[in-house]
Each structure stands twice: as C-alpha cells, then as structure tokens.
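Preliminary data (for renewal application), 5,6-dihydroxy-NADP complex.
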Amino acid sequence: MNSFTFYSPTEVIFGKGVEEQAGEKIKAWGGSRVLVHFGGGSVKRSGLLDRVTASLEKAGLSYILLGGVVPNPHLGLAKEGIELCRREKVDFLLAVGGGSAMDSTKGIAMGVPYDGDVWDFYSGKALPQTALPIAAIPTLAASGSETSTSSVLTHEDGNLKRGFNHSLLRPRFALMNPELLYTLPPYQTACGVVDIMLHTFERFFSPGGENEMTDRIAEALLRTVIQYGPVCLSDPTNYQARSEIMWAGSLSHNHLTGLGRAGDWASHQLEHELSGMYDVAHGAGLAAVWGSWARFVCGQDMLRFARYGTNVWGIPLNYEHPEETAMEAIRQTERFFSSLGMPITITQLIGREPTDAEMREMAIKCTHFGGRKIGGLMKLGEEEIYQIYQNAR
Ligand code: NZQ
Ligand code: ZN
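Predicted structure:
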C-alpha cells in the first residue's frame, strides 16, 4: 500500500431534522454573528431557511442573509459577501444549499481576512493564511463540498472557472438531512449521481498501483450509487435511497476513496471549461465528456478499467482480451448516464454541435493558456484535450 495522509476533520451530523442544530453548533464553535449564504431561492421555498434562522435566534446568535448564488457561482457575489462580512463584523459563515452556495461561502471565508483580491487564490497567485470558520447544510448530494477542501468559482471576465483547494476550506461541521433532497428536480439529482461517481473515478483511474482497501471502498461506493441513484429518480422521497446517495457524496470527495492514489482530475478540468463556456450543470458536463476521456486514456491501464467493469458492473472478465471488458465497462457507464437522463456527448449537453473554435478555446483555457498539462493516467496538453472534446462532440 502506498503512503498517504488522511485528514477529514469535518464533524458530520446526519439524519432527519439535524438542521435545527445549526444555532447551538455554531455557538459551540465560538460564532456569534453569522452570515447565512444561499442560492436562488430553493431554501426559501422549502422552508429550510426559516428553520435555520429560527435555530440561530434560539441560540441567541445574530445573523445576516446573503442569497443569490447561481450554479457555477460567480466571483462577483463572493466579493460582495466579503465586503458585507467586513462591514457587519461577521465571525462565522453558514452555507445553506448546493455546492455553489458552499463554494461561494468558502471564497468569502478566505477573502474576508485577505488584503488582496480573493481571485489571487483561484489563479494561483497567493495562498490564504487564515479564513473565517464555515459550516454547511447541504441540500444537494453532488459536489461533496460539505467535507471537501475545494471551492470552485467563475470569474465573469472571460468565463474562467477555477478551483482552489486548501485545508482552511473544510467546513467545521456539516448538518446533513437526506429529507432536504426530496425537492430536487430529477435533472439535479442525476447530475449529483454523476458527480459523485466522477469524484470516485478521478481517484480510482489514476496512478497508484494496488491499494486494495482504498480500491474496494471506491468500488463499494460506486455500486451503492448505481443501485440507489435510479431509486432517487423513480421515488424522490425514498429516505433510504436519498441517505445512501447523500453519504456517498461526502465520502466520494473527502478523499477516502483516493488514499495512496495520485488522482487524475482531467475529466473535472475538461468539464470546468464546458461549464465556463456554456454555463451547464457540472454533473451533466462530466457525463458528456467522461466516455471520450476514458477511451482516450484507458490504454494506459487497461486492466484497471477491466477491473472496474468486473467489480462494479459484474461484467465477466475476458482474460484473453481484457480490453474488451474495459470497453464494455465504459459503454455500460455511458448507458447508465443516459438512463438517468444525462448527456453523453457535448451536442446532447448544449443542444447543438460545439464549433471547432469553441473546442479550441476550451482546450487552450484548460491548459491555462499553455501553462500546464492535465491528468494523471496520461498527461494531456492542448492537442490531446482538443481531441477529447472532438471525440465527445
Ligand atoms: O440556487 P437554488 O435556488 O438553491 O437552486 C439550486 C440550483 O438551481 C438547486 N437546488 C439545490 N438544492 C435544492 C435545489 N432545488 C430544489 N431542492 C433542493 N434541495 O439545484 C441547482 C444546482 O445547485 P448547485 O449548488 O449549483 O449544484 P451542485 O451542488 O451540483 O454544485 C455545483 C457546483 O459545485 C462545483 C461545481 O463545479 C459547480 O460549480 N464543485 C465543487 C466541488 C467542491 N467544492 O468540492 C467539487 C465538484 O467537483 C464541483 O466542481
Ligand atoms: Zn465534481
């Protein structure tokens, strides 16, 4: 087994009604003035926001509200939040919503104590020395942001979508109530299932030799998601199914499924350009490009793709031609994405063919204008990235 460090300090409180603990938990963490940050209104419509603010009031905490986070969250609103927190002397941030609300909250948390432009962190110019404490009440099982170190924001100038990872960005605690997922539209549920699978794929299909414990956790997680994801679509208020998916979402991105492995992350980088260019949902963008990526790189470790087919999908291993098992595993994954209503090409994703110029622009941006290659199984530069977009068109 390869060496690794595992540190996942977010306290997870999981079950029905746990959002009512928001006030007492923040108080216990030393918060007194709270920014509650949320999206476009789903948390108001569901009544969740009222329950959360009632809990803050009951604990004697003061709070201010900042809504309006859009999917693929904008830098501009995070900057607004930073100014607001400084003005109002906020000392604790509570994200209520999906990955976008959580990621915007993380941007604010780093930005408040920083003198420069918070985009410096996302563009690799600076590292945060400190950040305000954060907690999360996720309403969507997908990003895993409730236990992850990541934040992804989009700079409106040039539609640059960039991620940043830092241990300061881990929420102190996450209140996870699977019932909060009942109101999700089917499309968002499906996007979440894909994103959870991809967070596991990015680690599983990457260099690292045989780390059996890690790999078997990853395979079990994938099997669980494949079993319960469709149930969430056919029976949206099925508590068991929503619970399984919600917990899988956190475990898929708190690094448990990647211990001892290098990680690949090319599919995520390819997708960030898609959602930067076309403002599509992250999970849908991943589904559109994953098959093309997998076919492009699987020759680097055919046996791993075959193992995935056998252990996750139950495809009998073709010992003489494991590449056939691998190919069938990729096809099976795409069939699964399609069965959830997800696109498996860029044309399906955006409703028209992408132009050559668009794909070239995404390839250039994906290399940070020539400054990097992406991927772990195979290093991908501009030409390879362009080819993967072409094959996914
Ligand atoms: O804005 P509201 O009104 O809340 O509506 C949202 C939004 O329209 C809606 N929604 C969320 N919970 C709901 C609900 N509607 C009804 N009932 C509920 N319970 O769903 C829509 C999508 O929300 P969003 O937060 O954008 O989705 P998701 O959680 O998939 O987050 C996507 C963002 O996370 C980033 C993605 O790139 C994307 O920007 N990621 C963040 C990661 C991280 N921080 O670790 C890792 C991921 O790989 C990902 O890149
Ligand atoms: Zn993701």
